[in-house]
Design a protein that fits this description.
It is a single chain. The chain has about 450 residues and is α+β, with helices and mostly antiparallel strands. The chain folds into two domains: about 280 residues, Aminopeptidase, CATH 3.40.630; about 130 residues, Aminopeptidase i, Domain 2 (Roll). The protein is about 30% helix and about 20% strand. It has 13 helices and 19 strands. The strands form three sheets. Strands 1-2-3-14-4-15-18-16-17 form a nine-stranded mixed sheet, with helices on both faces. Strands 8-7-11-5-6-10-9 form a seven-stranded antiparallel sheet. α11 links the parallel β16 and β17. The two termini are about 15 Å apart. Bound molecules: manganese (II) ion (2 copies). The site of one manganese (II) ion has 3 residues, from loops. The site of one manganese (II) ion (MN) has 6 residues, from α8.
């Protein structure tokens, strides 16, 4: 067989069409849809990972051959010990469990025009108008002075009420229509309608009614709301999209699509040569700052603990600089309706497998780490006939984005961004391809099962 002089990405639908692949793919997609329907906050995502790890027999904390270390319910690291010693490095996949949403303000409850409202502050990059006039659920925790932590999910059970942000009727929106989108939809108007019936007392309004109900149903007071972590997220389950059911529509696929794919791969790779590790960080959407973000010392502390438990005396730097990583974050494929923001020759396509981004950043590659040619070439070899593609995010100088790759690169870990495409990214209903999810699970599994680097042995 001669070598191909031209590079053409493989369509993941065409690659995986035999009945066995389809059965396996459909099973994974159904599990993924259930995961998206159930996990809408970083805490819920971390909890899901912990449950999955437990059901696969992983130790809580550091055990003999496995480990599951969660940090304040917001970040989690899952490890499976390989046949090679730790000093030979990890095979590490890092993803993030946080997603753009609306946080309640410190003193959220107000009442205006006979409507009780929760004021919010958005988290992450959103187009604010997408959050108006749609059913929203509240997820999160309320911690009270007595040390109790109440988990709250309202708006997911069909019997639950939902919440919503009101939008101005078109009849009176003449002035609004002439404004820029940024001006027309202000952050201070992202208020959730949470009540309308007056409270029990003669003078009581809807505000008092909401307080009475919060106390009656959840045992919480207005002061408890000041410390609460309650997030407004799109209500309702994830769905299949299209006559052919070929796409997944769900909130929070950036980056839970990668969390799901990487977790599925790690649990499937049962006897890895190198120690495998999945890190799910929080705070990525706001710059990875904070105790549970990728810029924290969490990974370092965990690796130090693993060294103490499994290979005392091994230098941390040796483990880190010998490690290989994938920054598993979603990519933006060519948008059929907004193709002009992309450089078509360097744009990913939905359905052609997970996407390598050799570098991210913006304007002169500013703020990016960049994968080495050697590492990227080895990964291409490793993937064999698993579909993959390589792309840049948008045209040069059109904008850009960052991921956690640079935080891993700072340790000397070899790392490249590699994740499936998601359309309508950061919207309340993000879209991915069923074929890409399957290809991504296969690609991550191949990575976790990989042997020596750099070894391009013939296969
Ligand atoms: Mn992301
Ligand atoms: Mn994002």
């Amino acid at each position: 067989m001669g070598i191909s002089l031209e590079y053409t990405p493989t369509n993941a639908w065409r690659r995986y069409h035999n009945p066995n692949d389809v059965v396996q793919r459909e099973k994974i997609v159904d599990q993924c849809i259930a995961f998206f329907s159930q996990c809408k906050t970083e805490r819920e995502t971390v909890n899901w990972i912990r449950m999955q790890a437990a059901s696969h027999g992983f130790s809580v904390g550091i055990g003999e051959a496995t480990a599951c270390i969660s940090f304040r319910d917001k970040a989690v690291i899952v490890v499976r010990r390989g046949q090679q010693p730790l000093r030979a490095g990890f095979r590490l996949i890092a993803a993030h469990g946080d997603t753009p949403h609306l946080d309640l303000k410190q003193r959220p409850l107000v009442e205006e025009a006979q409507v009780a409202q929760f004021k919010t502050h958005y988290y992450g990059g959103i187009k604010k108008y997408q959050w108006l006039a749609r059913p929203l659920a509240l997820h999160g925790v309320v911690a009270t002075r007595d040390g109790a932590v109440h988990r709250i999910v309202i708006g997911e059970d069909p019997a639950d009420p939902v919440f919503t942000i009101l939008d101005l009727l078109p009849h009176l929106a003449k002035a609004q229509k002439e404004q820029t989108v940024e001006k027309a939809f202000g952050g201070e108007k992202l208020n959730l309608a949470v009540g309308h019936e007056p409270g029990p007392g003669e003078e009581d309004g809807p505000r008092q009614m909401v307080l009475a109900l919060l106390h009656e149903r959840y045992g919480i007071t207005e002061e408890d709301l000041t410390s609460a972590e309650l997030q407004a997220v799109p209500a309702g389950p994830a769905r299949r999209v299209g006559f052919d059911r070929s796409m997944i529509g769900a909130y929070g696929q950036d980056d839970r699509l990668c969390v799901f794919a990487a977790a599925t791969a790690l649990f499937a790779a049962q006897t890895p040569e190198y120690t495998t590790m999945l890190v799910v960080w929080d705070r990525e959407e706001t710059g990875s700052e904070g105790a549970s973000g990728a810029k924290s010392r969490l990974l370092r502390y965990t690796v130090e603990d693993l060294i103490d438990a499994w290979e005392p005396g091994c230098p941390l730097r040796q483990v880190m600089t010998g490690s290989l990583a994938l920054s598993a974050d979603v990519h933006c494929p060519l948008d059929p309706d907004y193709q002009d923001v992309h450089d078509k020759a360097n744009a990913a396509l939905l359905g052609y497998g997970p996407v390598f981004a050799k570098y991210t950043g913006h304007g002169g590659k500013y703020g990016a780490s960049e994968a080495d040619a050697e590492y990227l070439a080895w990964l291409r070899w490793l993937l064999g006939d698993i579909p993959w593609q390589i792309a840049a995010m948008g045209k040069v100088d059109e904008g850009g984005g960052g991921t956690v790759a640079k935080d891993l690169a700072a340790y000397g870990v070899r790392v490249v961004d590699f994740g499936p495409g998601v359309l309508s990214m950061h919207s309340p209903f993000e879209i991915s391809s069923v074929a890409d999810l399957f290809a991504t699970v296969n690609a991550y599994t191949a990575f976790f099962c990989s042997g020596e680097f750099p070894c391009h042995a013939s296969r």
